[in-house]
Amino acid sequence: MTQERIVVGVDGTPASAAAVRWAAAAAARRRATVDILLAYHWRVPALLAPRGDLADTARELAELVVADGARDVAVVAPDVEVRTEAVYGHPAEALLRAGADAALLVVGTRGRTQAVGAVAGSVSQQVAAHARCPVAVVRGRPDPSGGVLVGVDDSASAGAALRLGFAEAQRWGDDLIAVRAIETPLSPPALGSPPLLHDTAEATRALAEAATARVAAAAEEFPGVRWECHGVAGEAGDVLSDRSARARLVVVGSRGRGGFTGLLLGSVSLRLLHRAECPVLIARTEPDEDAEPG
Which CATH number do you get for residue 195? Predict the structure, then answer.
């Protein structure tokens, strides 16, 4: 059996160091290898790209950064095999190439320097949107604990998130907490019509029951994982962001649309990339599996 690879992007910032440590712990549980990648570039025209001694210095500095990452992996998970690479180029493009056949891509948030390309902000968003494999964006509390939180609805991407969430809960020995966010406001009734309170309550109950049935079906593949499912009133991005404060990990589907895999992230995924208080894991679906915005 081919050993799984986890690719993690670094840029020398504390945020990327946190991503490396998270990736190391994840690799230990998956019995995977870790590839640490730094792609560096200057924000200048191509004709002024570093050459000669400047290029050598830049490469040496980049290699020091990835070497630091390898040492961090050795501290967290000494038995995990590590490979390092520093390349000249755009960070998002380099990470997407390196992660084309990876089991998982891991990035941090808000890492940025003048000389080294950021593995955060727009880069983490680009990687999360376009990667062919699941992407973990490490953010929030430095050592998150709690269950694995999964956003559920009736989409194909939510099904992928459930499967990935159960697998992660099994690896970490955690419970899975599924949440079905239910937005209940209805359009105003026609003049003279009674409020549809009963219908609203019935619709809410039906959505929560359907979500519970879907989680129960997914749980059959992971009999050792305890789970629970809650129907919660509110917008999904807000509900999951709030509950991420008590979770180890929040897992959502990509909800991409269009003819290119992961061309767009859904609104829920984007909200979590900016607001979650724990790492965010974005599941991947095939481009034709789910065409609704998330």
Answer: 3.40.50.620
227-255 pLDDT, tens digit per residue, is 999 999 899 999 999 999 999 999 999 86
Same domain, yes or no: 119 and 238: no
- Which of 137, 163, 185 delimits the end of a domain? 137
Q: What is the pLDDT of residues 26-59, one digit of tens each?
A: 999 999 999 999 998 755 444 455 556 677 888 8
Q: What is the pTM of this model?
A: 0.84
Long-range contact pairs involving 43-52 (C-beta distance under 8 Å, separation at least 24): 43/114, 49/88, 50/88
CB 168 within 8 A of CB 138: no
Q: Pick from 58-62, 87-91, 219-223, 231-235 the range whose average pLDDT is largest.
A: 219-223
Residue 100 within a domain: yes
37 contacts 62 by C-beta, under 8 angstroms: no
Q: Say how far apart CA 96 and CA 146 lie, in whole Å.
A: 30
Helical ranges in the chain per DSSP H: 14-30, 52-76, 91-98, 122-130, 156-172, 197-219, 236-243, 267-275
Query: What is the domain range of residue 236?
Result: 147-283
